[in-house]
Design goal:
This protein has about 300 residues and is of the alpha/beta class. It has 8 helices and 13 strands. It has helices at about 20-25, 30-45, 70-75, 95-105, 120-125, 135-145, 165-180, 205-230; strands at about 1-5, 5-10, 25-30, 50, 85, 110-115, 150-160, 185-190, 235-245, 250-255, 265-270, 280-285, 290-295.
């Protein structure tokens, strides 16, 4: 697995984020440069490319005059040796029909979409300098799932943004319960130096932030457990990452799992396997956010 950084900096200027001040405005790399690096990584044995930037869906707007993520992904799919391509940090308002059609049709693109929404209440999102509200986000997610039925959806949320009321937090909690994201991370708001949000009135106390974050994660734990249980008896393709000497089995990730932030698949093999290869694994049990199975 290797990360392919396609740009640096960000033009979104979310009020809670210092990245534009630290890294400046977005600067995309040329498509040919990204493809050349991908070919070099493939030649060294990389099987999975993880495409990253502060906002991958804005890729190319600075040098090509329009978003070019789909054009880049098509070129990356042509690189021999790469088996999986995963894209992180896609912004909701820039997920369009072209990207969804590409996710559905290109075999190398894993059916996985990382879409940090941060909140669902329209007023909070406006104060974050982000677009949308619960209604528009619900419509977008319905559209994504209709276009790519087997998609794995990941998001990120923030609790305790300045001025977040109990009612606004409850709206987000209901959304998490009803939407049933496959993967979800939740963080407490942290005041970054020299950001607009850090000077906003009605800062939320730390304990309230933590209590709200823990509630969101409890809701997601229930959803994740149910989704994992639904996979029992099914077969998944696993990128083998290592051997666990303590429990005497191999482990790796399915296409539905990004490294470091998602779960793993632990499985018995009965024979020696090579790290970095792919294996077909039948799931027969679950453990928290992980899956347990055996090699077919």
């Amino acid at each position: 697995t290797a990360y392919l950084k396609i740009g640096d900096g960000c033009d979104n200027c979310c009020t809670y984020c210092a990245i534009p001040q630290i890294r400046g405005r977005m600067r995309s790399r040329k498509i040919e440069d990204c493809v050349a690096e991908a070919k070099g990584l493939a030649a060294r044995g990389v099987k999975e490319l993880i495409v990253v930037a502060q906002d991958t869906t804005a890729y190319g707007t600075d040098i090509y005059g329009k978003p070019m993520l789909c054009a880049l992904l098509r070129e990356l799919c042509r690189v021999d040796g790469i088996h999986w391509i995963r894209t992180l940090y896609t912004y909701p308002e820039r997920i369009d029909d072209e990207l969804l059609a590409l996710l559905k049709s290109e075999k190398k693109l894993v059916k996985y979409l990382d879409m940090p929404i941060q909140h669902v209440n329209g007023e909070i999102l406006k104060r974050m300098n982000r677009k949308g509200d619960r209604q528009s986000l619900t419509a977008l997610i319905d559209k994504i799932r209709k276009a790519v039925p087997d998609i794995t959806l990941r998001t990120t949320l923030i609790t305790g943004f300045p001025g977040e009321s109990d009612e606004q937090f409850c709206e987000m909690a209901e959304f998490v319960r009803d939407t049933r994201f496959d993967r979800l991370g939740c963080f407490t708001y942290s005041a970054e130096e020299d950001t607009i949000a850090a000077t906003m009135p009605n800062q939320v106390d730390e304990q309230t932030k933590v209590d709200r974050m823990e509630h969101i994660m409890e809701l997601q734990h229930t959803v994740a457990a149910q989704k994992n249980e639904s996979k029992i008896g099914k077969t998944v393709e696993v990128l083998i990452e290592g051997w666990d000497d303590y429990i005497k089995c191999y482990f790796g990730r399915s296409a539905a799992d990004a490294p470091e932030i998602d779960g793993k698949v632990f499985f018995l093999a009965g024979r020696q396997l090579k790290i970095g290869d792919f294996a077909k694994v039948r799931i027969n049990d679950t453990l928290e956010y992980d899956l347990l199975g055996e090699l077919i």
